[in-house]
Design brief:
This protein is mainly alpha-helical and 513 residues long. The protein is 37% helix and 4% strand. It has a domain of 285 residues: Serine Threonine Protein Phosphatase 5, Tetratricopeptide repeat (Alpha Horseshoe). The longest helix is centred in the N-terminal third of the chain and has 25 residues.
């Protein structure tokens, strides 16, 4: 049975999108009538996880982390997908503070912070703290650190609130990025030894000890960007903690990590669980299949709803793969066929023409309905009710290996060592079915090659923007961005809706207010 039947996730309740750091308590939970058993402690923690479901939504964080990179874009196809030019602006890095995706993501992340603060506050009211209560309380502090990690990565400077008991008219001011970094770091390190170290059905989808180590590796790998101080040695130590646990390993089949039922993966460290049941909450729905596939693709995959024919690959990125790389199968290209082998055809402006997904196209403002390779990394069969049942992968063991390799190289002046090469080749071996002629050596593994490897391995997993900024390549010209973008685009603008609601917020440098 799907993992969402576990008591922990049964407790999830959907809370309306909010930008407020206070969330009303609609219950009479007290230390006398609740938190008496571990099951009760866990059920109360469920709402703090709900907002994580927004990270995989193209209209939320996924759009910010992928559609602004060299991996994906949404071209205008006839009368479809212009959307006031927002997706063209995303590719060209000419976005506005009023663009709705920024406010969507801000609201989802701070809703998560608010729910963590609320439940931690409730836990703190219990006089006699059980081991379970202490452990889950630290788990929520680590989860809150994850929300704030996303905030500091996307916006840098932002409000930092770590308590629930604030005045009703509380309007937080901007906290510098360095202080948010320190908060994330200390929140994780202070309680990491108390976090649950188990890897089983009870900890699946929860922010356990190994997820915390992986997040620490992330912040230390990016510390030079975040606070101007390299922390590569700390990154290596965190990666080693995950590796030495022996709990995770690379799956033999790369795509098994992304199956409709991918909870059995030994490679996925932390995921956001989804299912395709129940009511639809558009702010927390995993439906990349609808965003990328053509309407006729319903006949290829066993999916219920007709896709919208939007997201496609940036041509130069798709062309960058070695043609022998098995990860290239994450892209749909060429003539499309139904499940029974019949040719599929266009249905709109090019109606009657073969549905032949072309990697290359010339203009994202006037694209055809067949332009662009389509992402097919996650298994699409079985998507119903507008939703996919796959669990969205946030942290994966392959990323840990690649992070350690990069940290080793950066400590070594950018030059590969034998250890770094061996780490990268562990990942690369799977992609080329063990063909050693495709392996790197200390002479061929450069930082640029490592960035490319991360792109091929982690495509569509929400890390490309983070990687490109760290490598200084986020704002360089791209296929449909002929001129470099200014460096201030490394941070997004504070959403204008938030500034309008809170006069204590100051806009990020480079953007008008």
């Amino acid at each position: 049975m799907k993992k969402l039947t576990y008591i922990f996730f049964l407790s999830f309740m959907i809370i309306a999108g909010c930008t407020d750091l206070n969330v009303d308590v609609y219950s009479d939970i007290t230390s006398e009538n609740f938190f008496l058993t571990e099951e009760q402690v866990l059920s109360a923690a469920g709402p703090a996880y709900t907002s994580l479901k927004g990270v995989a939504v193209p209209e939320n964080m996924w759009g910010m982390t992928e559609l602004t990179t060299d991996e994906f874009l949404i071209p205008t196809r006839g009368s479809d997908w212009y959307n006031d030019g927002i997706y063209q602006r995303f590719h060209r890095h000419t976005w506005y503070a009023t663009d709705f995706i920024f406010n969507n993501t801000w609201s989802v992340l701070y809703e998560g912070v608010a729910n963590c603060n609320r439940v931690i506050f409730q836990y703190n009211q219990v006089e006699e703290q059980s081991d379970a209560l202490i452990s889950v309380s630290n788990e929520l502090k680590a989860l809150r650190a994850l929300y704030y990690f996303f905030v500091l990565d996307l916006w840098g400077n932002a409000p930092l609130v770590d308590r629930y008991d604030v005045p009703e008219d509380f309007a937080p001011e901007i906290t510098p990025r360095s202080e948010i970094f320190e908060f994330v770091d200390s929140s994780l390190t202070a309680g990491i030894d108390v976090l649950n170290p188990e890897k089983n059905t009870e900890t699946y989808g929860r922010f356990h000890r190994w997820a915390a180590y992986t997040l620490l590796a992330k912040i230390y790998l990016n510390a030079e960007v975040y606070v101007g101080q390299p922390m590569y040695g700390k990154c290596i130590t965190m990666c080693d903690s995950v590796i030495a646990s022996g709990l995770y390993s690379l799956e033999d089949d790369y795509f098994s990590n992304f199956l409709a039922n991918n909870e059995s993966s030994d490679e996925n460290i932390f995921v956001v669980p989804y299912d395709n049941l129940g009511d639809i909450d558009w702010a927390r729905i995993f439906n990349i299949h609808l965003w990328t596939l053509h309407g006729s693709s319903r006949e290829t995959f066993d999916i219920e709803q007709s896709p919208w024919n939007g997201v496609c690959g940036v041509p130069s990125f798709v062309r960058s793969y070695d043609t022998d790389d098995l990860r290239l199968n994450a892209w749909l290209t060429g003539q499309q066929f139904s499940a029974t082998g019949d040719s599929l055809y266009c249905t709109k402006g090019e109606a009657g023409q073969p549905l032949n997904f072309t990697i290359d196209f010339e203009d994202m403002e006037y694209a055809t309905e067949y332009d662009g390779a389509r992402i097919a990394k996650y298994e699409y069969d079985g998507a119903v009710n507008f939703q996919m049942p796959n669990d969205y992968v946030v942290f994966r063991y392959a990323d840990v290996l690649l992070m350690k390799a990069e940290a080793i190289m950066r400590q070594n002046g950018g030059t590969a060592t034998t250890e770094a090469v061996n780490l990268v080749n562990q990942v690369r071996a799977r992609a080329f079915d063990g063909d050693e002629s495709k392996y790197h050596t200390t002479a061929t593994l450069t930082l640029d090659e490592l960035l490319a490897e991360r792109g091929w391995e982690l495509c569509s997993e929400g890390w490309r923007r983070n990687d490109l900024i760290r490598f200084g390549k986020y704002n360089i010209p791209s296929d449909f961005r002929p001129e470099p973008a200014p460096d201030y685009c490394n941070l997004f603008p504070i959403p204008q809706d938030q500034i309008n609601a809170n006069p204590n917020l100051a806009q990020n440098p480079g953007y008008t207010q």
